[in-house]
Structures are given as structure tokens and as C-alpha cells.
Amino acid sequence: LQCLLVTSLVMSCTSRSAAPPPTAPSSAPSLRIQYGLASWYGREQHGRRTASGEIFDSNQLVAAHRTAPFGMYALVTNLANGRTVQVRINDRGPAVAGRVIDLSYAAARQLDMVHVGVTRVKVEFLAAPLPDHPRSQENLPEPSEALIYEAQ
């Protein structure tokens, strides 16, 4: 009788268990909005292959993030001055601990952070690119060596 009682108790508990909530893919950012430090990279990587397989162009509005899917767009806001830029994730990084995103030279220039090198930002991951933000900066000059060393 005890065996029957224990078996029925176990069966009733297991049959009522709910399915676990769906989880985000492991490659997605853990949060839709992240705050932290952003840095930028330019000439030293220009022309090299990114983790996504693209050739890095420092004049494009692109960025490196540790977990966001390649091709995802993010709106990055410089918390020091309120300037924003929309970037497309095409690389992995930053390599430096404590930073949440590495921006291309074009994106850093749009945020007015080239000379400081590192700044506090808000990163908002977007379901789709915003239509009113430019997606490239073809007419920007190449970063100079002086700016690269100043930023590091």
C-alpha cells in the first residue's frame, strides 16, 4: 500500500510539471540594453578579416561584441555627450576585460570619442536597423597614426 501511495504521488508530481520557459539562443546578448565602456579600433585592423568573415573597414559603422549575433544592429549612446550611432555587429571583442563593445573608427568619430579612446556608453540591441540612421561613412578619412596612439 505504501509503495502504491508513493508511486501515485511521484506520478502526480511529474505529470503536472510545466515546460521550462523558452530561453534565448546562447549567441544573443544577455540583455537588450547594456551599459559599460566602449573603445574603438581602426587602422591596425583595417583590411583584416573579422570573426564574421567580413573584411574590416574602419570607415563603416560596425562593432565587435562578445555575444551579439553577427548582423545584429545596436544603437550606441555616448553617455558623456548624448551622441548616438547605429552599428552593425560583425566581429568578436572587445579583447580588454571590462569593456562591452569595440567600435570602428567611423562609429567612434560619430560619438566624438576618438581622442578619449574609451567612454561610458549605453548599447541598445535593435530588432531591425533604424531607418533614419546612416549605415556607413565612406567619405571619412583614414585614421592617422597620431589618433591611434592617442586613443590607446
Q: How do the strands of the widest beta sheet line up side by side?
A: 1-5-2-4-3-6
Q: Helix tally?
A: 3
| Average pLDDT taken over every residue | 78
Morphology call: globular
Descriptive report:
This protein is 18% helix and 27% strand. The protein contains three helices and six strands. A six-stranded mixed β-barrel has the order 1-5-2-4-3-6. A hairpin with a 5-residue loop joins strand 3 (73-78) and strand 4 (84-91). The longest helix is centred in the first third of the chain and has 14 residues, at 2-15. It is globular and about 75 Å long. It starts with a helix and ends with a helix.
Any descriptors?
alpha/beta, six-stranded mixed barrel, globular, disordered C terminus
Offer a quick outline of the entry.
With 152 residues, the chain is α/β, with parallel strands linked by helices. The chain has helices spanning 2-15, 105-110, 145-151; strands at residues 33-41, 62-64, 73-78, 84-91, 99-104, 118-126.
